[in-house]
Amino acid sequence: MNTKEQLVVDLTAFEGTITLNLILENPFPRDVETTSPVEISISILKAAASVIVEGRVKTTAKTECDRCLEDVEVVIEGNIEATYLSENDRSIIQSEGQIDSLENLFLLTGDLLDLSDRVLEAIIVEVPQRVLCSESCNGLCPLCGENLNKAPDHKCREDAEIPDEWQQKLKELKKRVSS
């Protein structure tokens, strides 16, 4: 059984509540690169009109430092919260005007509940928008791209050739503003 199949639950196989505790190795290689197993704990409550899913996800993911572009591992601890409604129940709630106030509401089609999107969502939402390898990261040289953390004494000549058109235009603008 592949890792994604372990996140598919047959709703006809139980009544009431079940709990899933899984440890998966990089279940979403195209979407996010995890560097440790993904620990998943999910409770599924099957009620008359809905299926309520709650849980936690824990792993580490690899991303890039925003200053120096070196690989950085970040700890991910995310929450899973979702309510699934059948088409009939959804239309009843929608006709009563209550559906707009509900968050994490999804349509349930059939007897199989695929939780992979909820797990992936919990991971991606927790990856910080801005990641630094350290607060003191020096980044890259704006002229040649040298990693200034690895070469702290690096100096480019002022007249060094600017490698691309965008940086050339920026240098020209800087000269005009300063004169």
Commentary on this structure:
The chain has helices spanning 87-95, 116-126, 165-178; strands at residues 8-10, 16-24, 38-46, 50-64, 71-86, 105-108, 112-114. The protein has 179 residues and is of the alpha+beta class. The chain folds into 2 domains: 5-126, no CATH class; 139-179, no CATH class. A 5-stranded mixed β-sheet has the order 2-3-4-5-6. Strands 1-7 form a two-stranded antiparallel sheet. The model has no long low-confidence stretch (mean pLDDT 85).
Which strand order does the major sheet show? Answer: 2-3-4-5-6
| Parts with pLDDT < 50 across at least 5 consecutive residues | none
Secondary structure tally: strands:
7
What class would the helix/strand composition place it in?
alpha+beta
Task: Report helical residue fraction.
Answer: 10-25%
Distance between the termini: 67 Å
Number of helices: 3
| Oligomeric state, counting identical vs distinct chains | single chain
Strand content: 25-35%
Question: How many independent structural domains?
Answer: 2
- Helix and strand run: EEEEEHEEHH
Sheet with the most strands?
5 strands, mixed
The rough form would be described as: elongated
Alpha carbon gyration radius: 24 Å
Average pLDDT, rounded to a whole number, is 85
List the helices and strands and how they pair.
Elements: E1 8-10, E2 16-24, E3 38-46, E4 50-64, E5 71-86, H1 87-95, E6 105-108, E7 112-114, H2 116-126, H3 165-178
Parallel strand pairs: 5-6
Antiparallel strand pairs: 1-7, 2-3, 3-4, 4-5
